[in-house]
Amino acid sequence: MNGEDLIIKNTWVPTLLRVVLGVIFLVHGINKFQMGLGNVEAWFSSMDIPGFMAYVAAIIEVVGGVMLIIGLFTRVAAALFAIMMVGAIVTVKLSAGLLGNDQMPGYELELSLMLLSVYLLAAGPASLSIDRIIFKKQRTVQQARNNSSYKYFYP
Length: 155
Hints:
Strand content: under 5%
Radius of gyration: 20 Å
Protein backbone atom coordinates (compact mmCIF):
# COMPACT_ATOMS: atom_id res chain seq x y z
CA MET A 1 0.00 0.00 0.00
CA ASN A 2 1.48 3.34 -0.99
CA GLY A 3 1.45 6.53 1.07
CA GLU A 4 -1.53 8.03 -0.72
CA ASP A 5 -3.64 4.94 -0.04
CA LEU A 6 -2.71 5.11 3.64
CA ILE A 7 -3.71 8.77 3.82
CA ILE A 8 -7.11 7.95 2.32
CA LYS A 9 -7.56 4.91 4.55
CA ASN A 10 -6.36 6.47 7.81
CA THR A 11 -7.46 10.08 7.39
CA TRP A 12 -10.23 10.69 4.91
CA VAL A 13 -12.42 7.62 5.42
CA PRO A 14 -12.62 7.87 9.24
CA THR A 15 -13.12 11.63 8.98
CA LEU A 16 -15.96 11.15 6.50
CA LEU A 17 -17.58 8.51 8.72
CA ARG A 18 -17.29 10.76 11.78
CA VAL A 19 -18.71 13.85 10.05
CA VAL A 20 -21.60 12.02 8.38
CA LEU A 21 -22.53 10.28 11.65
CA GLY A 22 -22.41 13.65 13.38
CA VAL A 23 -24.69 15.22 10.76
CA ILE A 24 -27.18 12.35 11.06
CA PHE A 25 -27.43 12.70 14.84
CA LEU A 26 -27.47 16.51 14.68
CA VAL A 27 -30.39 16.46 12.24
CA HIS A 28 -32.28 13.96 14.42
CA GLY A 29 -31.72 16.17 17.47
CA ILE A 30 -32.80 19.35 15.66
CA ASN A 31 -35.90 17.49 14.46
CA LYS A 32 -36.81 16.68 18.07
CA PHE A 33 -36.57 20.37 18.99
CA GLN A 34 -38.63 21.37 15.94
CA MET A 35 -41.35 18.83 16.81
CA GLY A 36 -41.45 20.29 20.30
CA LEU A 37 -39.83 18.47 23.18
CA GLY A 38 -43.22 18.15 24.89
CA ASN A 39 -44.50 16.18 21.89
CA VAL A 40 -41.37 14.03 21.86
CA GLU A 41 -41.78 13.47 25.61
CA ALA A 42 -45.35 12.27 25.06
CA TRP A 43 -44.20 10.01 22.21
CA PHE A 44 -41.46 8.51 24.43
CA SER A 45 -43.97 8.02 27.26
CA SER A 46 -46.37 6.22 24.89
CA MET A 47 -43.61 3.65 24.34
CA ASP A 48 -43.03 3.24 28.10
CA ILE A 49 -39.79 5.24 27.95
CA PRO A 50 -39.49 7.87 30.70
CA GLY A 51 -40.50 11.22 29.23
CA PHE A 52 -37.40 13.05 30.48
CA MET A 53 -35.34 10.85 28.14
CA ALA A 54 -36.72 12.90 25.24
CA TYR A 55 -34.80 15.90 26.56
CA VAL A 56 -31.69 13.82 27.22
CA ALA A 57 -31.79 12.28 23.73
CA ALA A 58 -32.34 15.62 21.97
CA ILE A 59 -29.49 17.33 23.81
CA ILE A 60 -27.09 14.42 23.29
CA GLU A 61 -27.97 14.27 19.59
CA VAL A 62 -27.42 17.99 19.01
CA VAL A 63 -24.34 18.48 21.18
CA GLY A 64 -22.85 15.09 20.33
CA GLY A 65 -23.56 15.61 16.63
CA VAL A 66 -21.68 18.91 16.62
CA MET A 67 -18.85 17.32 18.61
CA LEU A 68 -18.51 14.55 16.02
CA ILE A 69 -18.61 16.98 13.11
CA ILE A 70 -15.72 19.02 14.49
CA GLY A 71 -13.97 16.03 16.01
CA LEU A 72 -14.06 17.12 19.64
CA PHE A 73 -14.33 14.41 22.34
CA THR A 74 -15.12 11.95 19.57
CA ARG A 75 -14.89 8.85 21.71
CA VAL A 76 -17.21 10.30 24.37
CA ALA A 77 -19.85 11.26 21.81
CA ALA A 78 -19.50 7.91 20.03
CA ALA A 79 -19.93 6.03 23.31
CA LEU A 80 -23.09 8.00 24.14
CA PHE A 81 -24.52 7.35 20.69
CA ALA A 82 -23.73 3.63 20.87
CA ILE A 83 -25.53 3.43 24.24
CA MET A 84 -28.50 5.38 22.85
CA MET A 85 -28.78 3.05 19.87
CA VAL A 86 -28.67 -0.06 22.07
CA GLY A 87 -31.44 1.51 24.14
CA ALA A 88 -33.50 2.33 21.04
CA ILE A 89 -33.12 -1.19 19.67
CA VAL A 90 -33.92 -2.95 22.95
CA THR A 91 -36.78 -0.75 24.14
CA VAL A 92 -38.52 0.12 20.86
CA LYS A 93 -37.37 -1.64 17.73
CA LEU A 94 -36.41 -5.20 18.69
CA SER A 95 -39.98 -6.50 18.58
CA ALA A 96 -40.32 -5.31 14.96
CA GLY A 97 -37.28 -7.31 13.85
CA LEU A 98 -34.33 -6.27 11.74
CA LEU A 99 -36.40 -5.19 8.73
CA GLY A 100 -39.57 -4.17 10.54
CA ASN A 101 -43.21 -5.05 10.17
CA ASP A 102 -46.45 -3.33 9.12
CA GLN A 103 -46.49 -1.11 12.23
CA MET A 104 -42.91 0.13 12.44
CA PRO A 105 -39.55 0.04 10.69
CA GLY A 106 -36.95 -2.40 11.93
CA TYR A 107 -33.73 -1.71 13.76
CA GLU A 108 -31.37 -1.84 10.78
CA LEU A 109 -30.73 1.93 10.91
CA GLU A 110 -30.10 1.93 14.66
CA LEU A 111 -27.81 -1.09 14.30
CA SER A 112 -25.82 0.66 11.57
CA LEU A 113 -25.51 3.86 13.59
CA MET A 114 -24.48 1.86 16.66
CA LEU A 115 -21.75 0.02 14.74
CA LEU A 116 -20.41 3.26 13.25
CA SER A 117 -20.34 4.70 16.77
CA VAL A 118 -18.49 1.64 18.07
CA TYR A 119 -15.96 2.00 15.25
CA LEU A 120 -15.31 5.63 16.21
CA LEU A 121 -15.10 4.66 19.86
CA ALA A 122 -12.41 2.11 19.03
CA ALA A 123 -10.55 3.95 16.27
CA GLY A 124 -10.73 7.50 17.57
CA PRO A 125 -11.28 10.70 15.64
CA ALA A 126 -8.69 10.45 12.79
CA SER A 127 -6.08 13.10 12.17
CA LEU A 128 -8.50 15.73 10.82
CA SER A 129 -10.09 16.65 14.14
CA ILE A 130 -9.86 19.05 17.03
CA ASP A 131 -9.13 16.07 19.28
CA ARG A 132 -5.84 15.47 17.46
CA ILE A 133 -4.86 19.14 17.68
CA ILE A 134 -5.63 19.41 21.40
CA PHE A 135 -4.37 16.04 22.53
CA LYS A 136 -1.33 15.91 20.25
CA LYS A 137 0.53 18.07 22.78
CA GLN A 138 -0.36 15.64 25.56
CA ARG A 139 0.81 12.69 23.46
CA THR A 140 4.11 14.47 22.73
CA VAL A 141 4.71 15.00 26.46
CA GLN A 142 3.90 11.34 27.14
CA GLN A 143 6.33 10.25 24.43
CA ALA A 144 9.00 12.43 26.02
CA ARG A 145 8.35 10.83 29.38
CA ASN A 146 8.81 7.40 27.86
CA ASN A 147 12.19 8.47 26.54
CA SER A 148 14.93 7.08 28.77
CA SER A 149 16.81 10.40 29.02
CA TYR A 150 13.65 12.10 30.29
CA LYS A 151 13.35 9.47 33.02
CA TYR A 152 16.95 10.10 34.02
CA PHE A 153 16.39 13.81 34.54
CA TYR A 154 12.77 13.69 35.76
CA PRO A 155 12.20 10.45 37.70
